[in-house]
Amino acid sequence: MKFKNKGRKIYKTKEKNYYGKSPVGKAFSVGLTVLLIGGIFFIGFSVAGPLINYAKQKGDTVTTTAPAFEEELITDANGEEITQEDTAAVTPFNLERFKAYTLSTMDIVDKDTLKKALKRVPADGKIEYIEVPLKEAGGDIYYATNNYYSTSSGIVQGAMKPKDIANAIVDAGYKPVAHISTFYDNVVPMYFQNMSYLTYADGMMWIDNSTEAGGKPWLNPFSEDAVNYITDIVDEVSSAGFVRVVCSDFVFPDFRQSDIDYLGDKFISNDRYMALTSAANMMYEKAMSNGSKMILEVDATDILKGKKDVLQPMLLKVNTVILNIDLDALAYGVFTPDTVYEFNGTPSENVRKMLDLVGDDLEDFNVAVRVSGSTAGIQELLDAKDEIVGCGYDSYVIG
Question: Helix or strand or coil: residue 91?
Fold first, then answer.
């Protein structure tokens, strides 16, 4: 969660007709409603259905109607405007602080290894949550899953049951969090090609490069089967005792024009984000139904490159986002069509620079910042955590 240290005015809320949206928001609402009523269900109703309720209040409780609000200044006894710089105690929003430490896949190979890893959690990090990577980018799964598609694809690399992992974390005095990579999956679509991107002319599986150059398929968020597969994984882990499920990699591959010639224009259309937001909403609802909560993770370098389709606050039911700043990736710089961003400072300096560059893209969300990277030592990560707090964010993930 972020509170900007800029003396921003504190507001309270009261009901207002038409959901209190700005003129742009109202136009967007009407436009989307027209699209849905008009029958433009280009991603299938089972996937796009959650969009119909996009105007529900964002938060961790699903409601049938959305309270509508207008802004009203909070003042002190003398009638003076109160700002966040004055005090955070009067803030009317009940936003959760999220302070977590991430273990590696090697830490969850068995119960004894996990117990030892939990003892190494830095005591000075004020850690409350422990996150474990149960499904990594690329597709591999690091727990004993019962999912048919996972076991049939040979991607299961872990032997511990998810409930045993969660219980061990609870026994150590922390709250368990599962990390699930979603559509950056290159294995399952190889075996179940209906989940992959298919060429529109002949229905052949698309890969992101030539076979000689190591081309691979991706899970397709427009595929109902692909969305159901990831949602089933979220269901499995959220019902096993994990109080939070962090879902990352809501992204499309980098398409070239030659790829679009085979796949069709819908994968670069202005409304392709609807496939990602509706999928995220399905996963959110599944986690909530199991008494857990979903957190969305986005990558800072992706945002800097303009790959931020999923960040649609008016559509998403999830309201907490983790911004991942990968220090290893920053070491090579970030290249966009217009600019080359260099990160040549210390980990703390690089974190601050990235927050300055992309922070405004997340201002409509409750934000936690992750600092990751294998080249940084634990003290450098802790120093970077202090930098995050200094920038006005009081939620963070280390590792």
Answer: coil
The rounded distance, in Å, linking the Cα atoms of 142 and 158 is: 4
Interatomic CA distance for residues 51 and 162, integer angstroms:
31
Kindly give, in sequence order, each residue whose CB lies less than 8 Å from that of residue 201, ignoring residues fewer than 6 positions away. Answer: 262
CA dist 292 and 48 (Å) reads 23
pLDDT of res. 292: 98
Residue 39, Cβ neighbours under 10 Å: how many?
A: 7
Give the model's pLDDT for residue 15. 31
Instruction: Quote the CA–CA distance of 282 and 232 in Å, as a whole number.
Output: 10
23-32 long-range CB contacts below 8 Å, 24 or more apart?
25/314, 28/314, 29/55, 29/314
pLDDT at 48 (0 to 100): 46
Q: What angle do CA 306, 309, 314 make, to 5 degrees?
A: 125
**Cα separations in angstroms, 176 against 158, 167, 301:** 17, 8, 27
Low-confidence ranges of the chain (pLDDT < 50): 1-80, 82-94
pTM of the model: 0.78
Residue 238 has a pLDDT of: 98
Looking at residue 95, its pLDDT comes to 58
Segments in 154-298 forming alpha helices (H):
162-171, 188-191, 224-238, 257-263, 273-289
Q: Which two tokens stand for residue 230?
A: 């990831």
3-state helix, strand, coil in the chain (%, to 5): 35, 20, 45
